[in-house]
Specification:
With 395 residues, this protein is mostly helical. It folds into four domains: 60 residues, lambda repressor-like DNA-binding domains (434 Repressor (Amino-terminal Domain), Orthogonal Bundle); 119 residues, no CATH class; 128 residues, no CATH class; 73 residues, Alpha Horseshoe (Serine Threonine Protein Phosphatase 5, Tetratricopeptide repeat). Helix 15 packs antiparallel against helix 16 and helix 17 runs antiparallel to helix 18. Pfam families: HTH_31. This is Transcriptional regulator. GO terms for molecular function: DNA binding. It comes from Streptomyces carminius.
Length: 395
């Protein structure tokens, strides 16, 4: 009987064997077990005994934990991730506390400029740099917003909280990302800016795009974002945020398998983008035809419309200065579509391009891990470039 778990030990043995450049017969010659048994273990038709696992680990020169699935899937050690995000959590916790008189803050103009610079780091996927700069900026902005509040400072505070959300999401700290969005809502309310409130709803909604999430809740957040926009005056910024909300709706509808809703949301986003053109940045969002195309690629991918996803990717004409984080995310989605259509070499090339553009983001991206694992499993032997990529992301 075939074992149903795609992550069974035999599957991991196959991945590690291919990374070592061995065929099944080649590995069988190095262990005291037959080729036939190894083949059945890798396919999941027979269980791997502890003795076989130990023998394979010795032959492949890997830890047995790499075959039993015990190591963390995160490419960075948990203690290093915790050390990186702990100061961010502490800074976000200051929001309702009296200002520490010992806190020396920069001028409002310097703080606003620092928030913008931090946002640029996030957009260019410089995650470590952004994580390192966030605690002091959040602390100083919190003190300044309490002591000398202004709309501009509260907007900068919302920007920093949004950056904290984006960084912690990319590092896999989703509980802290939720807190960061709560603080963004607090700052947006003080700023009195409905665009900020709508953007927060968009970011909240995207947390419901995982396959097992209740997508309907995310769609309600998108709808609430549109209602918030009714309070804003007509502007290109309002159109851009509305278009981004439509893209969020398309992503959630795709995850739910609702094709008509996907088509409707993409069409509305495209119509809006035709009116705005490539806006660049509106409250740290980029919106325009290119971003519509990138979201269409993701949506088609979720609907298993792989050829359509690749066609949408080919139609994108990125604007000058398009964020590296956006370009790299698109390449990861393209790699998934290429893999699904049998273009394995092209998929590997796309992943390597994503790594060059945004190495920190690509290393932590869960779909990169999925694609690399499938590439390893689809080959008898792995090319050096794939092996190095697998080692780099911690597979």
């Amino acid at each position: 009987m075939h074992l149903p778990d795609d992550e069974h030990i035999g599957n991991r043995i196959a991945v590690q064997r291919k990374r070592a450049g061995l065929t099944q017969r080649g590995l069988a010659q190095r262990i005291p077990y037959s080729y036939s048994l190894l083949r059945h273990v890798e396919s999941g038709h027979k269980k791997a005994s502890p003795e076989l696992v130990d023998a394979v680990a010795r032959a492949l020169r890997v830890d047995t934990a790499a075959l039993t699935g015990q190591p963390s899937e995160h490419p960075m050690r948990p203690d290093r991730v915790a050390a990186l995000v702990r100061p961010i959590r502490e800074a976000l916790d200051l929001y309702d506390l009296p200002t520490d008189p010992r806190t020396a803050t920069a001028s409002p103009s310097d703080l606003i400029a620092s928030a913008d610079a931090l946002c640029r780091d996030v957009r260019e996927a410089r995650l470590y740099q952004a994580a390192a700069g966030l605690p002091d900026l959040l602390t100083d902005l919190t003190a300044s917003c309490h002591e000398r509040p202004s709309t501009e400072l509260w907007r900068a505070m919302a920007s920093a909280c949004r950056s904290a959300h984006d960084v912690t999401v990319k590092l896999g700290c989703h509980d802290l990302a939720v807190i960061a969005l709560d603080r963004m809502g607090w700052a947006a309310e003080h700023a009195g800016d409905p665009l900020l409130g709508a953007i927060r709803q968009y970011k909240r909604a995207l947390s419901y795009r995982s396959p097992d999430a209740e997508h309907g809740i995310g769609l309600r957040m998108v709808a609430y974002g549109h209602r918030l926009l009714e309070q804003a005056r007509e502007s290109t910024g309002k159109l851009a945020v509305a278009g981004q909300l439509h893209l969020g709706g398309a992503v959630l509808a795709a995850r739910a398998g609702d094709r008509p809703a996907v088509e409707e949301q993409l069409a509305r986003a495209a119509e809006t983008a035709a009116r705005t053109g490539e806006v660049g940045t509106v409250h740290w969002l980029s919106f325009g035809p290119s971003n519509v195309g990138a979201h269409e690629v993701f949506a088609r991918l979720q609907l298993r419309q792989y050829d359509e996803a690749l066609a949408a990717a080919r139609a994108i004409r990125p604007p000058h200065g398009w964020a590296a984080s956006r370009q790299a995310a698109l390449l990861v989605d393209v790699a998934r579509a290429e893999l699904a259509t049998g273009r394995n070499e092209a998929a590997l090339t796309s992943l390597l391009k994503a790594r060059r553009l945004a190495p920190q983001q690509t290393r932590f991206h869960p779909r990169v891990r999925e694609t690399v694992l499938e590439l390893l499993q689809s080959r008898r032997r792995s090319p050096d470039a794939l092996t190095r990529l697998a080692t780099w992301i911690g597979v």
